[in-house]
Structures are given as structure tokens and as C-alpha cells.
Amino acid sequence: MPVFKQASRRHLTLALAGLGLTCALGSVWAQSFPSKQVTLVVPFPPGGGPDVAARVIAEKLAPRLGQPVVVENRPGAGALLGANFVAKAAPDGHTLLLTPNTMAISPHVLAPGAGGGIDVNRDLLPVIAPATTPLVLVASPSLGVSNLKGLLEQARKGGLAYGSPGNGSPMHFAGEMFKRSAAVDMMHVPYRGVAPSLNAALAGEVKLLYTGVGGALQHIKAGKLVPLALTEKARSALLPDVPTATEQGVANVEVNAWYGVFAPAGTPAAVVQRINQEINAVIRLPDVRERLLGAGVEPLGGTPQVLADFMKADTQRYGQLARELGIKAD
Fold first, then answer.
1. CATH, residue 186
2. How many distinct structural domains can be found in the chain?
3. Among 43, 117, 147, 330, whose CB has the most other CB atoms within 10 angstroms?
4. What are phi and psi of 325, to 5 degrees?
5. Of 127, 116, 131, residue with least CA distance to 38
6. Is residue 26 situated within a structural domain?
7. pLDDT band at 73, cuts 50/70/90?
8. Torsion of CA 175, 126, 75, 117, to 10 degrees
């Protein structure tokens, strides 16, 4: 037998043996996970949509995994501080990140090295996109407007400001896209998270706010905030009577927020698949679905590739928009 054929067979045998070992290790990882508490890091303060979604999921995920699932808030640097903490954790599935798509935007608007220099596309693995939440422009009742027509009339007189959960958030982009499309000028007032921005709007500190429906829904239903427009392609079942900005004549203001669960890079595929499987099962539970919808969060789910595609699309889109709109952190 020619030497090269013998070598090829040896290489093939070694490759197959290596593949078998990898599969066996993956099976061992899947069977041994989890072996201790699972920490679900939310890179924003308590009280916002991501925090609510994380706590609803964690409550039902714990009994399925047979270990406690604890939500830990690590806010800062537009989700990058929490993301960096998770990226540096042991890649074994016991430390996970639940973040809105702010994480895909922050690298484009913050200074290089912010959040510890994490590369979110290299240092984290997509696991699942458990939910989405539409974004809505709300107004204080004291402003006296109920739609974009009334808002634009006031905005063109000058002196209006709008709030958001922070520089570089999807809500900030929505506000700047609205200003560009409607040809109006409004000052941006950033806050440190969804809950602080909502509190400011409820207190009348800021008369306009771009926010996720998740945090605002109860206040809208109570009449404490007036919904003016959704920044979506279509209306949402969560607020079926609220038209989109496009419907009201202000086009090209289409921004939404998704929530993604990520694991540290290097986490075994079998562990990622187990977490994906269990969270998919959790968000299909009727009571979980009801609680999420009641909080203004729409359950989604699917494969890790769904989240990977979201991440890739938003990384590209917001990089371009940040350059066009000149959005940078203070």
C-alpha cells in the first residue's frame, strides 16, 4: 500500500477518534450541567424590561435545571460592564447574560475599551432570544398632545426635550431618527436605565420619552403616560390602538428592542443547546407567556442562530446609523 494512503487512513482514524471524543465530552458536559447555581446577569438596573423578563424566566428555569437561578444586576457602559463580567466567567454555562440589543450598539458609540475592552461578537456566544419589546414614544399628560401631529406642532415652536434610558440605547436612536425624519429639533436627555427614565417621565421631569412598551405599559393603562407612536413597522398587539410613526407621516423611524441570552465564548455546544432548550420550554408555559405579555414583553425563542442573526444585523445597522446621526457617548 502506498505510504500516502496509509497516512491518509491514519489521519482519518485520528480525526474520527477526535470527533468521537468531542461528542463524548459534549455529552458529559450536558449531563453534568448544571452542577451549581446559575447566575443570570442583567447589565441594567432593576425594574426595566430586561430585568422583569430575566426574573420571570429565572423563576421557572430553576426547577427545570435543578439548581437555583439568580438574577444579578451589573449596570454600566451601555451593557458592556455586565457583558464583560460574563465573558470573563468560566465557560461552563453557570454564568449567563440577558441583555437588550443595546449591547450591539454600545461599541459604536462608546470610547474604545469601554466596559473593559470586550468584543461582544467574539467573547460571547448567542444562546437564545427569549423575547422582544416594541418601542414607544410616550408623553406626559401635561404636554396636552395625543398624537404626532400635535407633538410636531409644539416641537416646531422649540423648547421640547425627549428622554431615553441612555446614550446609545435603541431609544436614543429612535429619537434622533425621528428628529431627522420630521425635521424638528429636540434636546436629548439621557438617563441611567429604563426605570430612572420612566420615573423622570412620571414625575414630569421630562415631557417626552422613548422607552420599551415593557416598562411603560402599566403606566399607559393607568393614564399616567400618553402613547403617541410606536417605532415599529407594524402595530403591536400589546398596544393595538397606537399607530406607528410611519402611519402618522413620519417615516424611517423603525427601531425595536430584542432581549438575548449569551454565554461566555468557549461554552460547550451541548451546554448551550441545553440552556436554549430549557428557556424555549419556559417561555412556552402559558403562565410565563401571560406574565411577559402583561409586562409588555413579547415571547420569542428559537435557535441560537436566530439571536446570532439579530446580533449581526443590529451591529451593522447601528454602526452605520451612529455615523450618520453622529451619536456618541458624552
1. 3.40.190.10
2. 2
3. 43
4. -95, -5
5. 127
6. no
7. very high
8. -100
Distances in whole angstroms, Cα of residue 72 to Cα of each of 38, 86, 264: 10, 11, 16
Return the number of other C-beta atoms located less than 10 Å from residue 266's C-beta. Answer: 11
Together in a domain, 194 and 52: no
Range of the structural domain that residue 150 is part of: 134-230
* pLDDT score of 295: 86
| 16 domain residue, yes or no | no
Question: Do 181 and 229 form a contact (C-beta atoms < 8 A)?
Answer: no
CA atoms of 201 and 217, how far apart (whole Å): 13
Same domain, 265 and 128: yes
In a domain, residue 239? The reply is: no
- Provide the strand spans (E) within 123-223: 124-139, 161-164, 187-190, 208-212
* C-beta separation of 53 from 297 below 8 A: yes
Per-residue pLDDT reduced to its tens digit, 141-195? 999 999 999 999 999 999 999 999 888 889 999 999 999 999 999 999 999 888 8
User: How, if at all, do strands 256-264 and 161-164 pair?
Assistant: unpaired
The single-letter DSSP state of residue 244 is B
User: In this structure, are 60 and 126 located in the same domain?
Assistant: yes
CATH of the domain at 88: 3.40.190.150
